[in-house]
Design a protein that fits this description.
The complex is a heterodimer of chains A (98) and B (229).
Chain A lengths: L1 H20 L3 H21 L3 H26 L10 H13 L1
Helix pairs in contact in A: 1-2, 2-3
Chain B lengths: L1 H22 L9 H12 L5 H9 L1 H22 L14 H23 L8 H18 L7 H24 L23 H25 L6
Chain lengths: 98, 229
């Protein structure tokens, strides 16, 4: 059991570092979601299924949705038609530099 | 220099947490009050899920406080964000994957959310978790197609009525001679879907309120004005 927990904690650490390092904002949000999902598995191992369910629903589900919505509000996640994809990439590059 | 300081801080914090973590026996928390509640709750409350017995039976007024906090937070968000100007055009629809996935996920999430709410007194989960899943079910279509927003009035009606129902069930317990929010009705057999008295009704009210509240909050966020940059 301690081995599984170690693997899960390693996944969480990797996801957290990935969330910091990813240049792509949507990928960073997904990494935060993976962090929460791994944490909910850890809660199951710690015999707290209720907390695990809350973590999976709120941490992995709802907060990822809120972050995705925030990205869209801030203009960091743009859904463009194919002809303006180039400008959006350029724009997101500027945002990461700032 | 700042990066070095942050690294030092993170390392120190990690070391501190590790030292604390080594003090505990992993996965075996010392349970003192827990054992007393675990032995008494199935007879007193009739809920197979002890967490629900604590959340709604023994500490019902805490749950009411949590609902009040959530209500205040979503009201504040609604006040601060305001409404989108009618002349601004809505965001473009999302890509194919999110649209198709959203259509596929919404009924699934509805079923799962309602299942978790209705089985809150039997299996892990309950009103809060199921409510959040319901909110996600209603919000994913908004994320996929921003041009068709949620109806605010329906959400507010559900939210208000379920919040009122929670308090009314508590007042009914007070009226029938017990404490506020004390479980009423027949306890039934442990483990049946219809058991534990009023706890499933309370959790249904909590779930609908949380779901409607969070969906309304997210819809408010989605409808907020885009800043010109």
């Amino acid at each position: 059991m301690i081995l599984i927990s170690t693997v899960i904690v390693a996944i969480m650490l990797l996801a957290a570092v990935a969330a910091l390092l990813f240049k792509n904002h949507v990928a960073a949000v997904a990494a935060v979601g993976i962090l929460s999902l791994a944490l909910s598995v850890l809660f199951v191992i710690l015999k707290a299924p209720d907390v695990a369910m809350t973590e999976a629903a709120v941490g992995a589900g709802l907060s990822a949705l809120v972050l995705a919505l925030g990205l869209r509000r801030l203009g960091l996640w743009q859904i463009e038609s194919s002809n303006s994809t180039q400008s959006s990439i350029q724009k997101s590059g500027e945002h990461t530099d700032a | 220099m700042r990066n070095l300081a942050s690294l030092l801080f993170a390392g120190g914090l990690g070391f501190l947490l590790m030292v604390f973590g080594l003090q505990f026996d992993f996965g075996n928390a010392p349970m003192l009050v827990g054992q007393a509640i675990q032995s008494a709750a199935p007879e007193q409350v009739g809920a197979a899920n002890i967490v629900t017995a604590v959340v709604l039976g023994y500490r019902g007024i805490d749950t009411l406080g949590e609902l009040a906090i959530l209500f205040a937070a979503s009201t504040a968000v609604g006040l601060i964000l305001g409404h989108r100007h009618t002349s601004t055009k809505p965001d473009p629809d999302s890509g194919l994957i999110l649209r198709a996935g959203g259509e596929l996920l919404m009924p699934l999430l509805l079923v799962v959310g309602l299942y978790i709410i209705l089985h809150g007194h039997l299996t892990p989960g309950g009103g809060f978790q199921g409510g959040v899943i319901l909110a996600a079910a209603f919000f994913i279509p908004v994320l996929a197609r921003p041009s068709t927003p949620l109806k605010h009035t329906g959400m507010m009606l559900i939210e208000g009525f379920s919040g009122a129902a929670f308090i009314l069930i508590g007042l009914a317990a007070l009226y029938s001679g017990g404490e506020f929010l004390q479980p009423l009705l027949d306890k039934g057999t442990l483990g049946n879907l219809v058991s534990a008295g009023t706890l499933p009704l309370l959790y249904l009210a909590v779930g609908l309120k949380v779901g409607a509240e969070l969906a309304g909050l997210l819809a408010h966020l989605a409808a907020a004005e885009v800043s010109e940059s």
